[in-house]
Design a protein that fits this description.
The complex is a heterodimer of chains A (362) and B (296). With 362 residues, chain A is mostly helical. Chain A is 69% helix and 1% strand. In chain A, strands 1-2 form a two-stranded antiparallel sheet. The longest helix of chain A is centred in the N-terminal third of the chain and has 37 residues, at 11-47. The radius of gyration of chain A is 25 Å and the shape is globular. Chain B has helices at residues 2-8, 14-52, 57-62, 75-82, 86-117, 123-134, 142-151, 158-162, 169-181, 185-192, 197-208, 210-225, 229-234, 243-251, 261-281, 283-295. Chain B is mainly alpha-helical and 296 residues long. Chain B has 2 domains: 2-52; 85-291, MetI-like (MetI-like fold). Classes of the chains: A mainly alpha (362), B mainly alpha (296). Chains A and B meet through helix 1, helix 2, helix 4, helix 5 and helix 6 of A and helix 1, helix 2, helix 3, helix 5 and helix 6 of B.
Chain lengths: 362, 296
Amino acid sequence: MASITTRLREPGIRGHEAAAGWLFLAPVIVILGLFLVLPIAMAVWVSFSDWTGNGSPLGAHAHWVGLANYRHLLTTPGLDQNNFGTSLRNNLYYVLFVVPVQTAVALFLAVLVNRRVKLVGFFRTAFYFPSVTSSVAITILFLFLFSPTGVINKLLSYLGATGPSWLYDPRGLFHVVLGQFGVHSPPSSLANGFFLGVSYWDWLSGPSIAMCVFVLMAVFTTSGTFMLLFLAALQNIDDSINEASALDGATEWRKFRHITVPMIRPTIFTVVTLGLIGTWQVFDQIYVGTKGSPLNTTLTPAFLSFNQSFNNNEWGVGAAIAFILFAIIVFFTVVTRLATRSPDHVPRRRRFLKAQPGGSAP
Amino acid sequence: MSSATAAGRPSTALRSEASAARRRRVGKLVSYGVLAAIAIIYVFPFVIAVVTSFKTDPDATQNPLSLAPSPATTGAFRQLYQDQDFLLWLKNSAIVTLSVTFLRVFLDSLAGYALARLRFRGRGAAFATIVAVMAVPGVVLLIPKFLMIRQLGMYDTYYGMIIPLLVDAAGVFIMKNFFESIPISVEESARIDGASIFRIYWSIVLPMARPALVTIFILSFQGSWNELAHFIISAQSSGLNTLTKGVAQLASGQLGVGNRYPLKLAASVLMTIPVAVLFFVFQRRIMNVSSGAVKE
């Protein structure tokens, strides 16, 4: 290292290096600027304008309307606000169901395939394979599996059960459960209060049966990816620690709970964060599968933003939804960071002993 | 497993040793059972997809679970070829994916090399910008990208479909990390011999960077082959449909195929083959790559 620095201090070479450095970076910087930084600036402007898609948003067709688009979504009662509130509700339940389940399943799979068992390569491949396929192909497969006369309902019929019509069923999961106990209509306190154009009763609906199919699909397709992250973390744990605890007579579960989990805490944070970021952006599956139906119960903010802009020509509203979604994702990421930041001694000491940064993927 | 047993032997009585071994054997059987059950859940849907693509429409509806198509037919595949623009979609996907993949490998490695090895003012700021970009969620960018593509007159062209996908901050990051991990001595001696910076990059550094280049290749190929949202917003003419977009239109019934699942599943099976091949070819590396990325 020291020798480069001295070399680079030589004046002639330094000039060459600066030129070459910027030249090497130029394509990436130009593309980033043109297709990321400038577009975001343009979209911010659109979200404060009344542009309807005619001509350029930078020309005479767009006018400054201030916060009108944001107010339209957040404070003005109406169809748009109702759709937006509904999409937030749907996506919130999707996040609340997918993130914990996929994290748990991925960790469970990683622990299973981290043992020295035969065919372990086959099992890892089997669990990871759904992750490499496209969302389009997987969605079609799930549309078939969960069609009213499809595979899942056939399996259920062998068990003597009648499956729901899945992607055509708008009933909320919690409402269905309450219905089992004879509660079919809301108390007036829940029916008459509204937030973002959606009644409290509807906020408490749970994911619709249709949305549950997308929840299962998300777990199916992402658990393999996260399994690999967990597997890497597990293999980083020193064998000596496991052996020592085995000699101490610790049971598998105690070992897992008190040694494994604390040691892979950074990876858990990574997986939860990546999960949150991913699940707030559901778009492909909805576009291919349901377009928000039935009764808007699979509508997500990402799809709504697209639909408002590209199909309804309300570009200002569409862009505003995108930025609110952005803020939500940032908020959840920061909250996760704060929640998992509790001081933790084991990984730190391990890092110190192994003299390597124990951080996980960015 | 055996080494643990050996270590425990001197201090443990034979009887408890035997019962411990039995417990371990039972434990092993249980974990095999669990693994096998989960593996079936993960593999079975794909078996169903392949089998159903060889079924007739009524057969698929009436016997969705049966693993023996009766009659077995390649009708779905023939219809994809005859009635749909499947080959056109395939061609477009190939053009876009190969362009994006090779350009990304080249541009990411150039930028990564500059950030890892070349000293110049503004390098830190450039790197910080690239890292910040990784944090912007993709779906938020759909409208912004469309606005820019249109503004630049690239809407409904291959350029608009390809160039915005070249933004690959994660790839630059991976290349930079890799270059920093390889020893600098070879480059130094070449530099003393008077080789130009580009020459050092091209004929000395790139060949050494093969593992990282393969990583970028795999990620970019898979990413752009499976991309859907960007193609929806960057083009509208059906002549520019990629596989994802074309098959998505099949799925939602826009192309008048209704509920013909054999046809739709045949399309999804075919479009999965290239990424599946890539996966099986580089399987060992994919499994190791991610572990390497986390360890660093």
